[in-house]
Amino acid sequence: MQNKYFHLVLVFISLVFMMLGCASNRVSEAGKQSDKHFNGLINKYKTDPQSVSYQTLWSAYLKSSQPEQTVLKHDTYLALLAKIKSKQLSCSDVDWEAIVGLNYWSIKPHLSAVECYKQLDDQAKVDFHEGFVGFILQGVFASGYGEHYYDAYEAASWGDVQDILELAGFKYIDTYLDLRGANQGVYYVVVAEDVETGVQRLFYFDNIEFINRVMGNSGRINSAENSLGFTVATSLANSVGHAAIALGDILAAGEEYEAASDWYLKTSLRDSPIAYMRLARLCLKNRLPNYTEEACLEFVTKAAELEYFEAYVLLSGLYSEGIWVEKDPQLSHDFLQIAFNKFGKGQSLADLADFYIEEVFGENRFKTAKKYYKRAVKEGYVSSSYVRLLSYQNARKNIKEEEYYALLKKLADQGNALAQFKYAASFLGKLKSSKDPEVKIRAKKYMQLSADQLLPQALYAMGVMHEYGLGVDADKSVAVDYWFAAGNRWHAAAQYEVASYLRDKGGLKNEKKAFDWMYSAAREGDDDAYVTLGYFYEHGTGTDQDLDKAYQYYMKAAAKDNAYGLYNVGYFLRYGKGVLIDLKQALEYFLKAEAKGSRGAPYQIALMYESGIGVEKSITQAKKWYQKAADKGHSASKLRLKNW
């Protein structure tokens, strides 16, 4: 089934290239220009494998033409393989170096080459291709931790992921797409089971660069009209299960529950336990009123029949709470025990706690959730959901502050990245005023530990610390590196900083990149990004000038009470910049902007009163507003009052 999905994905990619037309040809030419470099690195690797790093070769591969028209290359390989199996061709008839060379990152052709070279008794080539497969596997598993979207393993196609996990000794249970960053980031998540132990785990794979490269997008961060996740989900939902689940997730997030359930149901019929569980969750949240309790329970039992660990956890909770079934403590215990065997005791307990915290068993079940989280901690597993629950309770004063920070440190010392970040953040505000050396030590130590685990918030914070020299040496270049790392993991504030840095560097190329990064941050709802993107459209920075779009983004910022957004909307309405002049509304926006701290807004109000535009002329009022602007440091207002 996965091979079928892989082929459908490749067909989709080829169709995208056809739709791109001339643009895709330009991408192809750019890729071909990089082929010489990539092939040179391959030859260098053949001569001395230690002389070329995985990351160097992987980056060169992505820039080459190899990812393009992948379906044709894959089909060429499959056709040759079929002829060998049917004995129309022998191993000696095939130029395996040419076949492998079509797509060097595809594992199966290397393995087929190994089998043929064994038959031909060419041990040198056997060793090389086995070594290169090992090189790929080692490189992929060294590229992250694979436990979350932000530390996902970086890989090429979804088919490659299947090959990688099979070689690592895992079998597929199910897959889904985890969409992040306003659906800009597409992460391929595999629930896989160790064939020897029977223990399941989730593997996160990052295919974003590969997919964007194949689709002709400008890079990982780009300003395509439709997000990558939306494009993939809508294009492949009818044929690929994990894309259908992603589309269902998008619809459910938009509260289109019936439409979401239709996609989950279609996917569940392909024996997808994750789709069944998505339906069960909607049932528990009362989003599917047309389904009976018996039907909802069947979703969970079918997921359990497909041996998905989370289904056993949910069944344990259902029998414990008597939801859809009679209460049965023994059955609840038995199902949880199965989950322990499938997923580990600590993680299963935390997973059960998550169901309570999500209120799928009813409202205000924090105490029960906390009980299971504590049990999970005793088993050596710290859930980030537990850290968030503690932070929530601390914010509501439901837990003593001393107890909260003691718990936070304990969880941080057990290695949880979110706990490390929150514990470090508690010291940041004290860095400038405190003379206690322990404040600096702990802020730096725990923030670095969290950043080393690639938590986006920590990466961003490390950037801020290095920009201002908070507990570390001030170094803007180091700060930017951290912001790039966080921004690539869809941290909006970090993307804003990267965009600002690129804009300040100047040049058309950097301005275009700055626009892409700012567009990404704006998609995630960052109000400062709305303002700056409005500025980019207003002045044609990194994009074509478009006053209508500029006004739209200023309006989005104004809707979030951003002072700059409010001011700019007022300015556009006052002077008819891309919109009709509306003096009454302009004054209202200037007043709101002034209340939010804008320096320019009281100056504009003063001008209106001095000239009697939109208001009754009043020198007294004009002086009053000039003074307000001057008090905020507005130089033109100071000069106006001085020369009055």
Explain the layout of strands and helices.
Elements: H1 2-20, H2 22-47, H3 54-63, H4 70-85, H5 96-102, H6 107-119, H7 123-142, E1 153-154, H8 158-167, E2 170-180, E3 185-194, E4 200-206, H9 208-215, H10 228-236, H11 241-253, H12 257-268, H13 273-284, H14 293-305, H15 309-321, H16 329-343, H17 345-357, H18 366-378, H19 384-395, H20 401-413, H21 417-428, H22 437-452, H23 456-468, H24 476-487, H25 492-505, H26 508-523, H27 527-539, H28 547-559, H29 563-575, H30 583-595, H31 600-611, H32 619-631, H33 635-642
Helix pairs in contact: 1-2, 1-4, 2-3, 5-6, 6-7, 10-11, 11-12, 12-13, 13-14, 14-15, 15-16, 15-17, 16-17, 17-18, 19-20, 20-21, 21-22, 22-23, 23-24, 24-25, 25-26, 26-27, 27-28, 28-29, 29-30, 30-31, 31-32, 32-33
Q: Order of strands across the biggest sheet? A: 1-4-3-2
Radius of gyration over all CA atoms, rounded: 29 Å
Q: What is the CATH architecture assignment of the domain at 490-598?
A: Alpha Horseshoe
How many helices? The count is 33
Q: CATH-wise, what's the superfamily of the domain at 490-598? A: Tetratricopeptide repeat domain
Q: CATH topology of the domain at 490-598, what is it called? A: Serine Threonine Protein Phosphatase 5, Tetratricopeptide repeat
Secondary structure class reads mainly alpha
- What is the mean pLDDT? 93
**Main pleated sheet:** 4 strands, mixed
The CATH C-level name of the domain at 490-598 is Mainly Alpha
Find the count of extended strands (DSSP E, 2+ residues).
Answer: 4
Helix content: 55-70%
Backbone shape:
globular
Low-confidence stretches: 1-27
Percentage of residues in strands: under 5%
Distance between the termini: 80 Å
